[in-house]
Design goal:
Blueprint lengths: L4 E4 L4 H7 L4 E3 L7 E3 L3 H13 L35 H12 L5 E4 L4 H13 L6 E5 L1 H6 L1 H8 L5 E4 L13 E4 L3 H4 L5 H7 L8 H8 L3 H12 L8 H12 L19 E3 L4 H8 L16 H11 L2 H6 L7 H13 L3 E5 L4 E3 L8 H8 L11
């Protein structure tokens, strides 16, 4: 089977489509995303993406395979309706047990809620702490200083600071694990959305928000059918947002991320990108934001951390922030390695151009000719 697109550089969507006679139209003058002629249902997913974010990014996928996309996107974990429900603690324990069997563990720790939850899970459940490395930076210490001091007193764990240029010449063995996946499973809430619509809006019927944004009956009909694919009632804005991000945006840990510390393509894993956590959240969406303030977002995971470290301030004051450490270090090393690419295939192959930000039609034709035609769907 030919490899599919795993990650796509959105700035090249319009150019690549034009080579295949497919017309793309920018959603707005400030948006990097495009609607594609002849793919109405895909365009509706683009609309939903813009309803939930003023500056949406990333590729759109459909894990249910019910929507025909312009590009044949690889979905590493297709949607699966849940039948068996575990407790949150059991989800953490089983995930640790599974991952620690795969060799040395490198944990990216930013100090935030997501990565600290993962670290607590290993501290509680791993039987092989001597094979765990914590990869952190000075920013990690600033974000969660008390937990850093706690880690220094655990003799079995190796602490590896990747600040500065340390990571440029290091090739650590094992698998690399981040807290990725949890944002999508918890509706990817951001403070700007709460400020614009208020906490109460999350509990309103989703149709009110959608129709306020796009007054199109066909769009609403599509969304009704799309929401039914979740195999659970979708009534509120919060539930609709959870379903969209869980189904369409859970491609957060690209293959090349692991090249920060290893040039040999080791296994890169999003800890929460897992059916058990997904099924747990589908039954506990109301726990995503239990109180009337953004600070309570992901409270269930802050509570999980608190049960271990008893840090009251972190539990009550810590807000979800988007850590740029991983993307920053990744981009820096990739730039130094001169691995300019326009898309990443599911087998790890990078489709490259040495002329970024430009890609001429002559270069595309001379280098790839018709070898990539299978990546495009017709309409």
């Amino acid at each position: 089977m030919d490899p599919l697109i795993y990650k796509f550089s959105t700035s090249f969507q319009k150019k690549l489509c034009s080579y295949h006679g497919i017309n793309c139209v920018p959603v707005s003058s400030t948006s990097t995303q495009f609607k594609v002629d002849g793919f109405n249902e895909y365009n509706y997913l683009i609309d939903i993406n813009h309803i939930f974010s003023s500056s949406p990014s990333g590729d759109i996928v459909d894990r249910t395979s019910s929507v025909v996309l312009p590009f044949n996107m690889f979905v590493h974990r297709p949607w699966k309706n849940n039948h068996v429900l575990k407790t949150l603690e059991k989800c953490f324990e089983d995930r640790v047990r599974y991952l620690e069997k795969q060799g040395p563990i490198n944990l990216f720790w930013s100090g935030g809620i997501d990565s600290t939850s993962v670290l607590v899970a290993f501290l509680k459940h791993s039987k092989k702490l001597d094979q765990v490395r914590v990869l952190y930076s000075t920013y990690s210490v600033k974000e969660n200083p008390n937990f850093y001091l706690h880690l220094l007193n655990i003799p079995d764990i190796e602490m590896v600071e990747i600040s500065g240029d340390y990571y440029l010449d290091q090739n650590l063995d094992g698998i690399f694990i981040s807290g990725d996946g949890i944002d999508d499973l918890t509706a990817s809430l951001d403070e700007s959305f709460i400020k614009k619509h208020s906490w109460q809006y999350l509990q309103m019927p989703w149709q009110d928000l959608y129709y306020k944004s796009i007054k199109d009956d066909k769009f609403l009909e599509f969304c009704e059918k799309f929401n039914e694919l979740s195999n659970r009632p979708i009534k509120t804005v919060l539930e609709a947002r959870w379903w969209f991000y869980t189904n369409c945006k859970i491609q957060k840990f690209p293959i090349e991320t692991s090249s920060i510390l290893n040039d040999h393509q080791p296994l890169a894993v999003g800890f929460f990108d897992n059916y058990d956590f997904e099924h747990y959240m589908s039954h506990n969406i109301e726990k995503i934001m239990p109180e009337k303030n953004y600070q309570s977002y992901k409270q269930i995971f802050k509570d999980y951390i608190f049960e271990y470290d008893h840090d009251k301030r972190y539990r009550t004051k810590k807000k979800k922030t988007s850590s740029l450490q991983l993307p920053y270090y990744t981009a820096k090393k990739l730039a130094l390695k001169n691995t300019n690419y326009i898309l990443l295939l599911s087998n790890g192959q990078r489709i490259r151009t040495q002329n970024l930000p430009l890609l001429s039609e002559r270069e595309y034709r001379n280098t790839y000719r018709d070898s990539l035609n299978y990546l495009f769907n017709t309409h």
